[in-house]
Design brief:
heterodimer, A: 4 helices, 0% strand, B: globular, disordered C terminus
């Protein structure tokens, strides 16, 4: 009997929760704010679904009821992706070590 | 056009890059590289999506246009936002992830053919369950984050909003969501889908209003977690590994952060989520408050005390963020260092309005991160320090948490500032902290109060 592909996805999901658990515990507490902003940015990978939705219309009607929601989702996710990664970058650039000469 | 197998492999690669992005955050040196991994993973995921659809018609141009539009708004916000406003920004971003998840689910519901989920009115059962869970969690994330944002921004009062029958009402709504999902799967009715969304928006709103402003670190972390589960739900619908992996990562990350925050306050997760904390306590404690003598001083007294010290520990709190005093603080520390005074910083896990908030502010003011310590690392040093300089913090230093079992914050880990030879409090007033508890420290012999707007 063949295994339902859903089971494979479920396995990936469960294992990723464990990976996430151990990886996040190893994050140093002083970087918890960047952690939140970067998780924000990466969870916006939901944009791949938005792109599929946006391109679901045919050439005669690019905008149908379904693709409009797709386009809106693209814009929202893009705000998050750019905003999230850039603000993380900005924060991380501020973390400096003590200068040697002092 | 690339094959489905090849694109699945690329999605896996981008999922792994996201794991590496989080892994990089284990130390500040590797963190910048980690962020680049994250960006790379995102570029791969988006490119592969374009290639696998292979539709470079006019629609494609619109997709780029909307990415550009959203991207420029995001970039603008990222460069303009002051570091003190990070909690609001993160809450705002969470709401966008939630709403995007809802929109993708709506789109998939209206046009399931585009996603290979069956036909309209006859969507595959598994996909419909995943889709409705993703949409419901996304909607809760959206409206919850909006409330969190409004509370943090001060547009809405930070005090908890409680009313009679609140918890039974919320429980009924949560149960009705489960029932709605069941009915939706049985009937495929689009009306039920819209009702499900409306009810989910409502419950997100109702769940967050009873939670007080100072519990926002837990709320933000929790919403962070929800946004991850929403993404994972959509990932199952779209059969996309990158989304499933990311959703699981973000979901567990948020859950761990909420756990750390709750532990920092010695409260259970449910105690925080059920809300209402501080609303009842403050009334009782203010009624039996007697006038007790307080030693207050001015900036000169403080300067004198610190000049004669050999080591100073600074304890920053939310008040520092409100007054944007981190730069002024850093200038003061520079003067101290010129006089060969050892300075370090002590950060309580729940100081500020989000996890790690104080660390970012200090980093912004060019404080080297190896002078900044966590509660467990530094707590024993207070006994050897001459001056503890508490700026805009209160509850996290209150010795009542160790001595009075009646106190609502009893058992909460606190910074032992009272063990210092002298304690300087920079605060706006004598008012108790959010927990509504008087801080005995104010009245101790060796405490000097400086009433100012934290900035001096």
């Amino acid at each position: 009997m063949e295994i339902d592909p859903l089971i494979f996805r479920l396995s990936i999901f469960i294992l990723s929760i464990f990976v996430g658990y151990y990886v996040v515990w190893s994050v140093t507490p002083s970087l918890h704010t960047p952690l939140m902003s970067v998780t924000n940015a990466i969870s916006s990978v939901i944009i791949v679904g938005a792109i599929i939705a946006g391109l679901s219309g045919n050439s005669n009607s690019i905008f149908n009821s379904s693709s409009i929601f797709g386009f809106l989702a693209i814009a929202l996710a893009a705000i998050n992706i750019f905003g999230g990664f850039l603000v993380t970058q900005r924060m991380l650039a501020m973390y400096k070590k003590k200068k040697k000469d002092k | 056009m690339i094959s489905a197998n090849l694109s699945a492999i690329f999605y896996l690669v981008s999922g792994v890059l996201f794991i590496l992005a989080l892994r990089g955050l284990s130390s500040p040196e590797t963190s910048r590289q980690g962020n680049l991994f994250g960006i790379l993973g995102m570029i791969i995921a988006i490119t592969v999506t374009f290639l696998s659809i292979g539709n470079f018609s006019t629609g494609f141009i619109f997709v780029l246009l909307f990415i550009l539009l959203g991207g420029s708004i995001g970039a603008f916000i990222a460069y303009r936002i002051p570091m003190t406003a990070m909690p609001e920004l993160v809450a705002g971003f969470h709401s966008l992830v939630g709403l995007a998840a809802v929109f993708v689910a709506i789109s998939a519901f209206l046009n399931p053919e585009a996603f290979n989920l069956g036909t309209k009115g006859n969507i595959k059962l598994g996909s419909l369950i995943e889709m409705s869970i993703g949409a419901a969690v996304g909607a809760i994330t959206f409206s919850g984050s909006i409330i969190a944002f409004l509370k943090l921004q001060g547009i809405m009062s930070g005090s908890p909003i409680v009313f009679k029958g609140q918890h039974p009402l919320n429980a009924i709504i949560l149960i009705s969501i489960v029932v709605l999902i069941y009915l939706l799967c049985a009937s495929q009715s689009s009306n039920l889908f819209w009702i499900l969304l409306a009810v989910s928006f409502l419950i997100g709103f109702l769940l967050i209003i009873p939670i007080g402003g100072a519990d926002m670190p837990v709320v933000i972390s929790m919403l962070n977690s929800y946004s991850g589960w929403a993404a994972a739900g959509i990932g199952f619908t779209l059969e996309n590994t990158a989304l499933i992996i990311t959703g699981a990562l973000v979901g567990s990350s948020g859950a761990i952060l909420s756990y750390i925050m709750c532990k920092g306050m010695n409260r259970s997760f449910f105690n925080v989520i059920l809300g209402g904390f501080g609303a009842t306590d403050s009334s009782t404690s203010s009624s039996n408050k007697e006038q007790r003598p307080v030693k207050s001083g001015n900036a000169d007294d403080a300067a004198f005390l610190m000049k004669n010290a050999s080591s100073v520990i600074i304890v920053p709190g939310y008040g520092m963020a409100v007054a944007q005093a981190q730069h002024a603080l850093r200038e003061m520390v520079d003067t101290l260092k010129k006089n060969d005074i050892k300075v370090s910083y002590a950060i309580h896990p729940v100081a500020g309005r989000m996890p790690g908030h104080m660390n970012v502010l200090l980093a912004e003011a060019n404080v080297p991160y190896d002078e900044v310590f966590e509660l467990e690392e530094i707590n024993n040093d207070f006994a050897n320090a001459d001056v503890a300089f508490v700026i805009g913090a209160n509850d996290v230093t209150n010795p009542v948490a160790k001595t009075d079992p009646q106190s609502p914050i009893y058992g909460m880990p606190v910074l032992d500032v009272e063990k210092c030879k002298s304690v300087l409090f920079v605060k706006r007033s004598l008012s108790p902290g959010y927990a509504g508890i008087d801080n005995d420290l104010f009245y101790k012999e060796n405490t000097l109060m400086l009433f100012a707007d934290a900035k001096k």
